[in-house]
Write a structure and sequence with these properties.
Blueprint lengths: L8 E5 L5 E5 L2 E4 L8 H11 L16 E6 L4 E3 L3 E3 L3 H10 L4 E2 L10 E3 L8 H23 L6 E6 L2 H11 L6 E7 L7 H9 L9 H6 L1 H5 L7 E3 L2 E3 L12 H22 L9 E7 L7 E5 L2 E5 L34 E3 L10 H14 L4 H5 L12 E5 L3 E3 L4 E8 L8 E7 L7 E4 L1 E3 L2 E6 L5 E9 L10 E8 L5
Parallel strand pairs: 1-8, 1-9, 7-8, 9-10, 10-13, 13-16, 18-25
Antiparallel strand pairs: 2-3, 2-4, 5-6, 11-12, 14-15, 17-19, 19-23, 20-21, 20-24, 22-23, 24-25
Helix pairs in contact: 3-4, 4-8
């Protein structure tokens, strides 16, 4: 198949944990991180990646940390965040479009595809400022080389990368140079998982890296910014509470202001007719996975819940397992109905074939001007419900624990048949094992015992597919030895 022509520049912005980091030239967060024991990972995070004195006005903190590339494979902090990596997305873009890959710190007027790694521990304002510096420097080079005087950038932001892009576009004025923004599971209104981890850490002491996580400015910037903490007969924001264990109220307020700045700037731009549609945002939303939506505070600590706040009871009470449905759509686009819904877990959105096909179709369309002259304005219609599998399991198990995989089948009009789980060890990626799930009164279950230590991918899908069958859903979990020291 011939490659699609590309007039613009494409930039990939990875999410939280999604950039490889080096300290004084040596890897401290990279592809090999997942192969280390959980004890070594904890020591590495707490020793090498602890963030001290993050001044958002300073580009270089002098700690020797540099972001050098995209994570290519699975990485996670159990209970907090996980990402499969970006090798599939990168391969898709290079094979689908007529692009020349480049490196952000190396001037190359021929290049129009870039990964934009950044220090995901720090204030996202810093990464947004770096993004502005890069685009201000490179876009004129590309325009001169390509002869496309009106060339712009297309930003693909997975997870927190969408927040970096939004700050650049709205607060720093980058909207003038942007064609389109794709946000894949971006926590525009935050994630309760981040709040839960700040307050409670991980119950397995050797897996707990809350000291490091609490030092990251970025963790605060993915806190939920809507009223979701139940207090008496009302709901309050995280930034309005001073008594949550592990959460510094001043930092929570600064993070709330970060989101408020983006929202206010976007509203101001969109209030002017000539700039309202300066660029197009396409939110890609993971759905139908059990996702925390609210919380209470008991003895100073957060107790998360999958129940919607009573004030938001009319909204869907699911998401991608990390980011709630309502959080994955920017506030100012709530009535635009541009979002694309994908039945998938948060860390796998950027690798799904159907997501990649949506990217291809929308990006190709942006390269053809004046579609409205041919087709007329687009209709704002709601997306119908999709057949779905909801997958639930823990991130971390000890070898003496049962692994319980739970699944539910949702919105499927036909008889499904059975579900199966395909489990693959990262140590043996070409030797997957397939297990049937057992139907129960409340869904489907699979129980595993004596699973060897290691990191595993899991794929749950119908055993036999029909035209109305749901697509497969993916996740990752880890098994550790309780006696490991």
């Amino acid at each position: 198949m011939p490659q699609e022509h590309m007039n613009d520049i494409i930039v990939i912005l990875p999410g939280f944990l999604g950039s490889t980091l080096q300290k004084h030239g040596k890897d401290v967060w990279g592809a090999s991180f997942a192969t280390l024991s959980i004890t070594l990972r904890k020591a590495l995070l707490n020793r090498e990646l602890l963030l001290v004195g993050d001044d958002p006005t300073v580009d270089d903190l002098g700690d020797g940390i540099r972001a050098v590339g995209l994570m290519s494979d699975i990485t996670m902090i159990p209970k907090l965040w996980k990402v499969e990596g970006y090798s599939t997305l990168w391969k898709f873009l290079t094979e689908t479009f007529d692009v020349v890959p480049g490196v952000v710190n190396t001037p190359n007027p021929h290049a129009n595809l870039f990964a934009f790694p950044y220090d995901w521990r720090r204030d996202n304002c810093v990464a947004a400022r770096w993004l502005k510096q890069f685009i201000d420097r490179h876009l004129p080079l590309w325009r001169d080389h390509s002869g496309q005087a009106d060339a712009k950038v297309i930003l693909i932001g997975h997870s927190m990368g969408g927040l970096v892009a939004r700050h650049y576009l709205e607060v720093l004025g980058g909207w003038e140079y942007c064609r389109a923004l794709f946000t894949l599971g971006t926590p525009h209104r935050g994630s309760i998982d981040a709040l839960d981890y700040l307050s409670n850490g991980h119950h397995v002491v050797r897996a707990d890296v809350s000291n490091a996580v609490r030092s990251f400015t970025s963790t605060y910037q993915v806190l939920p910014n809507y009223r979701m903490i139940e207090q008496g007969n009302d709901y309050v924001r995280v930034a309005e509470m001073s008594s949550i264990h592990g959460v510094v109220q001043e930092r929570a307020q600064q993070a709330f202001d970060f989101h408020k700045d983006i929202t206010n700037a976007a509203k101001a731009r969109r209030s002017v007719e000539s700039t309202r549609d300066a660029y197009i945002t396409f939110p890609i939303v993971g759905i139908q996975q059990e996702t925390f939506q609210s919380a209470t505070v008991v003895d100073g600590k957060i107790v998360p819940s999958t129940n919607m706040p009573a004030t938001l009871h009319a909204f869907p009470s699911h998401g991608d397992g990390t980011v709630p449905y309502i959080s994955a759509i920017p506030a100012e686009l709530a009535e635009e109905y541009r979002e694309m819904f994908i039945v998938e877990k948060h860390g796998f959105l950027q690798s799904r074939d159907d997501v990649l096909e949506q990217l291809r179709q929308h990006i190709v369309r942006t390269q053809v001007p004046r579609w409205d002259a041919i087709l007329g304005p687009s209709d704002k219609t709601k997306t119908p419900l999709l057949p779905a599998i909801s997958l639930t399991l823990e991130d971390l198990y000890c070898t003496d624990e049962q692994i319980e995989v739970r699944a539910k089948v949702l919105d499927t009009p036909e008889h499904l048949g059975a579900l199966e789980a395909q489990i693959t060890s990262l140590n043996q990626p070409n030797q997957p094992s397939t297990y049937p799930l057992q139907e129960t009164d409340d869904g489907w279950r699979l129980t595993l015992e004596d699973q060897p230590t290691g990191l595993y991918r899991i794929r749950v899908q119908p055993s036999h597919r029909g035209p109305q069958s749901p697509t497969a859903v993916h996740d990752v979990f880890e098994v550790i030895d309780r006696t490991e020291v």
